[in-house]
């Protein structure tokens, strides 16, 4: 019955109700003002939208009289079937807040990436923890330790180019680390207080910005102007400002030769890191091609 009623909605109504659900599911709350700001509607219309969503899914939200905000209920069950890629688009860019359907492009396009497992219910626990600034107890699978229980304090999601990660303070190791989203088995919010040393402003690698100078590989590229044009280089160099915590991922994804003497051979190495000294102090350099070969 609910599915039939959803199909009867106009696209505008569906977009607004989908937005209500996205906010509830991944942020844990929704206010009338959120709808007013996002869609440019009047407060009375926002009230009707929230009431309509509550009518369709009465067990999904509760009203917090103290905070004057609608919050996600413990027995929340989603109405809309959001593709994972659309959720990430919404979380990071806010485009197409609704669109709980798979969009078909107007031209042919294919993706060569490997499929990754991302559980949206688990993701919603992580995003709500980030939004509220609280810790999470997780079951996590690592290559070195297998399945372990950990307590982490997440504060950001990050795309390595191959998979999505959670940047978080790991109470087990006492360090800030990256956790692959596909390796979580479970996640539950914790009620305890987060300590000052667990906050994102204490993550040196995350807050440090380094500038990489990428140039066409001096040995492997016969026509450097091709690489310069492809990457929009100016003066034969592409300057990329990036968080130190993300530098290794970028260098690995683009097969950037990080040796001091640009000595890596192979057609995959189109780029060379000209200012190798920019990586000093970066901790994830095991990912940087050739960085340790000249040490």
What can you see in these coordinates?
The protein is α+β, with helices and mostly antiparallel strands and 295 residues long. Helix 3 (32-39) crosses helix 4. The longest helix is centred in the N-terminal third of the chain and has 16 residues, at 11-26. A hairpin with a 4-residue loop joins strand 6 and strand 7 (175-180). The protein has a 5-stranded antiparallel beta sheet with strand order 7-6-5-4-8. Strands 10-9-12-11 form a 4-stranded mixed beta sheet. Strands 1-3-2 form a 3-stranded antiparallel beta sheet. It has 9 helices and 12 strands.
SSE order and pairing:
Blueprint: H1 2-7, H2 11-26, E1 29-30, H3 32-39, H4 43-56, E2 61-64, E3 69-72, H5 84-93, H6 120-132, E4 136-142, E5 146-159, E6 164-170, E7 175-180, E8 184-189, H7 204-207, E9 209-216, H8 224-230, E10 238-243, H9 244-253, E11 256-257, E12 271-273
Helix pairs in contact: 2-4, 3-4
